[in-house]
């Protein structure tokens, strides 16, 4: 190189990945050597001639725009060169850049028999190699251009920065203790395993801390959790949980029964319509009417599917008295009958004849009927009556209710020859004619002195029992009683006027060929005219009838829980972690909460009978976390423990202490050591190892923590091969093998995030106290060791943040520094009041969801470094997936189309993967073209981009060309533009000649 000032910025333009410190290559270096030797080997040229200057020849040979000397001078120089290989390849005329480059390459590749020329070419080649190494090492000495992990590690140490180690995935689980084991302490290290979602060997997780637990805390319920008090109308479609083989159908008669006395009374209803639901276990049902208007789902039963349908045995009812006779065939309904009572004889209409029971309408119920005498029906002519012979009494049905005797002479019709009204008279024989009375139906009966029929049976239903003696509520039925007829069964009575009434059986009496049922209310219509449906054999209840749908938080923000034992109550203390789980399949999932306050419940209401083991609890955090949880479907799991990816291994000896060495460093040659969450460290994780010095454990401290110097603490430094160096911050006592790692865990990285929710169900091996495990949350937070690009970005940022959060950029940098975070962006939310709200959008490692556990970890990690009074709010990012449609032109004579396709797809996926994108980073079509044209074998490329169809999120802005082609997508600050899948890439490959 020369010392003349040159424009080297073309090698160091903004945006280049590295600096080029070397201005030249082997061909240029060879020309420089030739120029120096030409100046030395000119014969007969004066020493002060321009040709004696090596720079003259170098510029002449290298610079395409350098003017040629006069022809005479040039001829003199060429004749003075007595070294043939030096004269070869000299430009005969002014060159342009292209011809100059071709000449330099031609001269470099030319073979020569001259050993000196070959040595010179070899020296130029060696200089090129050496310069390349020098250039690489120079770039490794600068944080912005270094590429090697070890170089970046050393540069980071200069600015008090330690690379972020790989983080172990973590989650929170609930332990299910075996019943009856009482209070137990489950020590850290309880193992459990599950295969990753993509397949492979099971991953081992272990509990990270000791837990005092009790089986009564496995699944704690809230007070009144199993009663749904929501109202519904029976005549509107309501979902019912089916339980029988055959569901109710339109037209069916049902009994809708309340479960509490304070609810509407039981009603007989008819199904109007039904609707199926996506779940065949449920059916929507609506009745024709709903007399009482509203019912409560928790107290409503619908009884249906009657065992039989029958009318009742006739009994005295209203004005009709039923009696039992031995000759029922002599009586016909509608005819008149003479009724003899102890004190009188009256005429009545026969209301009904059922078996051997005769019902007569006497106007009022008479219990004392001795005998009946049937009267012969007789048809009369309109206007007057001629009787049969020897009839001494004639009765008319006046108004259909009472018989009227008509022997009054005032009604006689006197014939022209007989004053008495006799139509025919002889000794012992007579016939009469008389007028019919007003308001009669001209239907009568004649009394021909027939015999009375004695009454043989009581006219009222028998007593079912000494207590159940109300005859108006007792109905008799013929035959044998149904097998399912028991006390408490339900019937529905269908009265003649169309009314439906629900009846509950209070007692049953069995007689020969008949049985009697005593109901809870009286029958309002004749039994023989009433249809009884029952007993009902199947019952259904409204969907979620046994689930209280009220929010879990009352108006004061507290929750009253049912805890079965005092020992379990004693464990519910402030600060205890609890998993609050929505048990519905399509519910709100689960949240991790912390007990904030606990109070005993001393006052109980009548509703609380049987639920007196109560404790009032308040949870810290935002009440909106529980806003959609309902009492009946929520379970509180207080046996909650944190778990982390990794398996405990036995201890190892690190080495021997040397009291003469400060900051002694010992290698720990184990790969994949677990790093568990610890918000007090600068990276949010700490190694899960126990280091002992002469048997005493030392605490961990960040390598960048200056306060740890000269204290009994150790730090770890990740090595490039995945092992650790353990740095002791105070001189170690001299000894032989007195430094040990007594316990450590192995398992970390993004692979731990592959354990989805509910994957872990039981301990890895049989445990004497733990019966099962509930894992509602997916494992999250697992991340691989920090890569070089991230180190380059974060190392400088750590100086600016200085492990504290004041500006928004500080919050962004600190959050990015966490081992479980790929990217973050902070924004200030303006709101009333003095407290500052900072909302941080987070891209968790590997795109994992921002769950409760990770949010809590990040909040603690950042809050410790923020100003007092700062409120932090974390939210997950949203993806903005893109599609790419590109056409590539390649040289098909040199490259295979499939190889180019695979290489181009891999380049695009890598360039636009989530890990290599940032929040709010624009998606340019120019970036797509640049990525494709860097693929070896791609000559040119054309591409179009688009937001993936069906994407619900929208970008902030789209930039289009004049032709309408999309050129750039500008996402919102909470979005990441990326390629989500290989299927989002469409490539068309053509040859250069096409």
Write the layout of secondary structure elements.
Blueprint: H1 26-40, H2 54-62, H3 71-80, H4 84-87, H5 97-109, H6 115-140, H7 149-158, E1 170-177, E2 184-186, E3 191-194, E4 203-207, E5 211-213, E6 221-222, E7 231-232, E8 238-241, E9 253-258, E10 267-276, E11 282-287, E12 295-296, E13 300-311, E14 320-325, E15 336-340, E16 345-354, E17 357-361, E18 371-374, E19 376-379, E20 384-386, E21 394-398, E22 402-405, E23 422-426, E24 429-435, E25 440-446, E26 453-457, E27 474-478, E28 490-494, E29 500-511, E30 514-519, E31 531-542, E32 559-562, H8 566-571, E33 577-582, E34 590-600, E35 614-619, E36 634-637, E37 640-645, E38 647-655, E39 665-668, E40 675-677, E41 685-687, E42 689-693, E43 696-700, E44 713-718, E45 724-728, E46 739-746, E47 770-774, H9 788-801, H10 808-817, E48 821-829, E49 836-844, H11 852-863, E50 870-876, E51 878-890, H12 897-911, E52 923-924, H13 925-933, E53 938-947, E54 957-960, E55 966-970, E56 975-978, E57 985-991
Parallel strand pairs: 43-44, 49-50, 51-56, 51-57
Antiparallel strand pairs: 1-37, 1-47, 2-5, 3-4, 4-37, 6-32, 7-12, 8-11, 8-31, 9-10, 9-13, 10-11, 13-31, 14-17, 14-26, 15-16, 15-18, 16-17, 18-26, 19-25, 20-24, 21-22, 21-25, 23-24, 27-30, 28-29, 28-31, 29-30, 32-35, 33-34, 33-36, 34-35, 38-46, 39-45, 40-41, 42-43, 42-46, 44-45, 48-49, 51-53, ...
Region (Disordered): 644-689
